[in-house]
Inverse folding.
């Protein structure tokens, strides 16, 4: 089987249940999820090269990559097919548990954080922003067609996860987060 099919030369692509133009909201949503998955892979490569203890984070990110494929698959359905959906709210709950676990390692945050610090932290912040874009594209898609709502919830929580683990990457490497110094104290940590 060859890589090229020529079926998209006229600006259309196949989705589950039909064909759409390549800039269709559906394609934009799952295409942005695919882009995010690439950046997650890049972050994993930085973990593999890091001199710290990140095996837990590496394993979690590998699982996130699988789940991002699930998200894209769920959004590729032209007609709603709940019985075939892969993304479930249990995945959102598990992300919340991971967020709480990693956040317990982080120093208190009172101001907005500027992306940066270690290379790994910076890469995870890129994941966070691309994840937010994927969420926006998914919201746009959901305004005019039925989607699996668990995908939207998953992406929302995943961006929070990336924020927290970006901070954890800095903390474990003993690199200070970069605070936005012109910000008032806006965050209050629950005690």
């Amino acid at each position: 089987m060859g890589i090229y099919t020529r079926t998209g030369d006229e600006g259309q692509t196949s989705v589950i249940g039909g064909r759409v133009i390549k800039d269709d909201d559906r394609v934009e949503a799952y295409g942005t999820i695919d882009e995010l998955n690439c950046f997650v892979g890049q972050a994993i490569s930085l973990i593999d090269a890091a001199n710290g203890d990140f095996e837990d984070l590496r394993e979690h990110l590998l699982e996130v990559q699988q789940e991002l494929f699930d998200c894209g698959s769920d959004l590729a359905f032209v007609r709603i097919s709940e019985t075939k959906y892969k993304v479930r709210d249990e995945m959102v709950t598990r992300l919340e548990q991971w967020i709480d676990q990693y956040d317990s390692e982080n120093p208190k945050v009172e101001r907005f954080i500027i992306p940066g610090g270690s290379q790994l932290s910076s890469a995870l912040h890129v994941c966070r922003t691309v994840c937010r874009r994927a969420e926006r594209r998914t919201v746009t898609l959901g305004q005019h067609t039925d989607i699996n709502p668990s995908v939207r919830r998953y992406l929302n929580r995943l961006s929070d996860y990336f924020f927290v683990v970006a901070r954890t990457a800095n903390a474990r490497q003993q690199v200070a987060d970069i605070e936005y110094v012109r910000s008032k104290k806006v965050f209050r940590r629950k005690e």
In short: Helices lie at 25-49, 55-75, 89-103, 119-142, 149-172. The longest strand covers residues 12-15. The beta strands are 12-15, 18-21, 113-114, 178-179.
